[in-house]
Design a protein that fits this description.
The chain is 37% helix and 13% strand. It is built from 2 helices and 4 strands; from the N terminus they run E-E-E-H-E-H.
């Protein structure tokens, strides 16, 4: 984490399934990453916090709104679709035929 930005402390009891943050989230040591930016909290993340008795997390970001999360999901979907189309073009260019 950089020292120039505002670092926010997040109480682990407030972390919920599906939450996404605008910046990476770090464990309470400020060194080891807990969650990368724009990726949702999953069940195993919550279980790890409880199992390891982590009291708080640190981030320079903020919790993304549902609208921001929806926009990110839409952009990821578009990117995946474009990537799939590019793979199809590459396959046809090189004469690669997939068996069903």
């Amino acid at each position: 984490m950089s020292s120039s930005s505002q670092i926010r402390k997040i109480d682990c009891s407030s972390v919920q399934l599906g939450m996404c943050f605008s910046s990476p989230v770090y464990f309470d040591d400020g060194e080891n990453m807990f969650l990368s930016a724009k990726n949702p909290v999953k069940k195993y993340h919550l279980e790890a916090l409880k199992r390891w008795e982590i009291p708080f997390l640190l981030t320079e970001g903020y919790v993304l709104s549902d609208k921001e999360i929806s926009n990110i999901a839409s952009e990821k979907s578009k990117a995946e679709s474009l990537n799939n189309k590019m793979e199809e073009v590459d396959a046809s260019f090189f004469g690669i035929v997939e068996d069903d």
